[in-house]
Amino acid sequence: MKRLLSKATQALRQWHGPLTEDLVLQPGRFGLGQVPARLAPDGTATTVCGFCSTGCGLTAHLRNGEAINLSPATDYPVNLGMACPKGWEALAPLRAPDRATAPLRRTAHGEFEPISWEDAIGALVENFKRIQQQHGPDSLAWLGTGQITCEELGFLGALAKFGMGIRHGDGNTRQCMATAVTAYKESFGFDAPPYTYADFEQSDVVVLVGSNLCIAHPILWQRIMRNTHRPEILVVDPRKTETAMAATQHYPLKPKSDLVLLYGVANILITQGWIDRGYVENHTNGFEVFAQFVASFTPRIVGEATGLSIEQLQRFAATIHRGERVSFWWTMGVNQGHEATRTAQAIINLALMTGNLGRPGTGANSITGQCNAMGSRLFSNTTNLLGGHDFCNPAHREKVARVLGLASSCIPQSNSWAYDQIVQGIADDKIKGLWIVGTNSAHSWIDQDQFSALLGKLEFLVVQDMYASTETARRAHLVLPAAGWGEKEGTFINSERRFGHVRKVARAPGQALADFHIFQLIAQVWGCSDMFARWDSPEGVFNLLKELTRAQPCDITGIGNYAHLDRAGGVQWPFPDTRPASTRLVGETESHVGLQTERRLFEDGRFYHPDGRAKFIFGPPRPLPEIPDGQFPLLLLTGRGTSAQWHTGSRTEKSDVLRKLRPANLYIEINPSDAAALLIQPGDEVRVTSRRGTITAAAFITRIIQAGQVFIPMHYSATNKLTLAVFDPYSRQPAYKACAVRVQKAQ
Ligand code: SF4
């Protein structure tokens, strides 16, 4: 161990300058070498935003090599000169006074003490190896994130699984996109969102299911606003959200009756003969059985289940029928449900049966959440083996081992536990050590008090984060201070499959290190650095990731390097190096490869199943897991609050500007009729109780929410004290969107 620690120290000096005790906890004294490498002649550098999956290009304005301000990049093909408040304020979280600037170890008195990196990595390795020896190799797990780069995700997953023998790891992307992943894999044969953002501008009918685009993806809403075809905009949402208010048709259905609605619409389309027979026959399997299945979803039955009128259902179907280019979009209102995968596939089925795939302005399109959730889907090495491969496939294991120069025996032959199974593993005393990287689980995981209690059972909890102040880091035995977005280099993949180059435009404070370098240190001290000798720089790892995608649907072997991404404004997958000349744009030459800005999938009608056909997949709807009753008579919905807030607020709460753009305190939306019955006035403090716990909130009385329902934004730390730990059975994604509560005026 001593020899390995000494090697680690050498590496630290190489990346981080001299290490002396008096430098500890002095932010800004030393950084990670030069920033940044490639600048425009005007001294700016274009990078990709580190909040949401839209993946906007941001121009960093530099002084002495460091960013002093940001503005939306005018020539980036994603955002076209626009940015939401989070993008404008993305530097503020880097400058927060509560940044973790040194490794912290919990003392016997329960306080944190700063320690050296050598001691920190030594403590991690010593404790994790002890736990593995005492409790077996599967007694450790990790929880990752969609907020670090592809290169870091790949490194974390490879180090943990191949180097450290930690088989069980998952990401916070389980909380947002696992449903879309499962739905696409089963329906299309690969996790493949088919669209390009230009489709927002080219549709004549835009159907948004469970998506408050105005708030959650405001720049994508701006892309709809650029649509010159006067599109019909249909919003399916129980709440009259900002997006629903701007829509041409709002369908305020009962919560979680979306699967029944979609089957009912499919039935009307079939009975009216409004389907694309040619597309169905040439490109799909399973339609006839699906048609028989949905025949029982008559307008009357669907109307009763959804609360919508028969006229509304017929108008919905007729609008789809009239559209020449219909695009279907969904986000968390679908993904975070108890029957989410089948609901997502019901949307896919509508696109398939009407031939709305592979053409401009069409698609069955899942919009992702986090800035690199799509990178996590391909490269986190959790549910997929690196590069969209399969752990259970021997040929895939051999390929990955060959590309990485490893023995295939180090690759697990089975899938990891999912997030909820890891949590259950803690409850069952199977998981004893946990490594949490870049996510605030103690705030965001469902049924928060139960999760928080389980953290207390762990023998060793390591949290690697920008801040030691998050709800999760405060519970850790060891905190590893991480550089944030803007303080390191790598790539993100946005919702439309676009790889974008993330630049280093700021120095990390104190001793904070890029996650990439933390993984290098751990590899050295663990004793597996030989396996990662080629993982020496982010761009070097990018080249490995590229090679891993060869011959996969997500093949990006045609991307040259980071400079290529800069020139092209990002590149969407697939982009193989064997791309035939016929797929290039007129006038495109080798040196311009990738400079076209938009590309969609399935233009040839071929999907990724062995027979090239998409599948109709369906199943019977199931009742809500927790139905309101006399004791808990209201249904709680959760979701995003404002475009100024991001998830648990770890970063957005650091910005004075963003804090001014959202309500300061937790609030609950209550319909006027419910408020009157409960004698609640606007602004009253109320107690909200579920079977899991009680919180207080300020009453916001509004018709945005229907009678019998209430809404609380997800960003406030108390919200998940109420939610119910129920999961979609196929994607294992938590169902955050509906549970029964009681609301009372506080005394
Ligand atoms: Fe664009 Fe999303 Fe960043 Fe806002 S948070 S600037 S919408 S990428």
Describe the structure.
The chain is an alpha/beta fold and 747 residues long. The chain has 4 domains: 94 residues, N-terminal domain of TfIIb (Single Sheet), CATH 2.20.25.90; 247 residues, Rossmann fold; 174 residues, Dimethylsulfoxide Reductase, domain 2, CATH 3.40.228.10; 112 residues, Beta Barrel (Barwin-like endoglucanases). It has a 7-stranded mixed beta sheet, with helices on one face. A hairpin with a 5-residue loop joins strand 4 and strand 5. Helix 4 runs parallel beside helix 22, helix 10 packs antiparallel against helix 13 and helix 10 packs parallel to helix 16. The radius of gyration is 25 Å and the shape is globular. The structure holds iron/sulfur cluster. Iron/sulfur cluster binds next to helix 2 and helix 8. The site of iron/sulfur cluster has 13 residues, from helix 2 and helix 8.
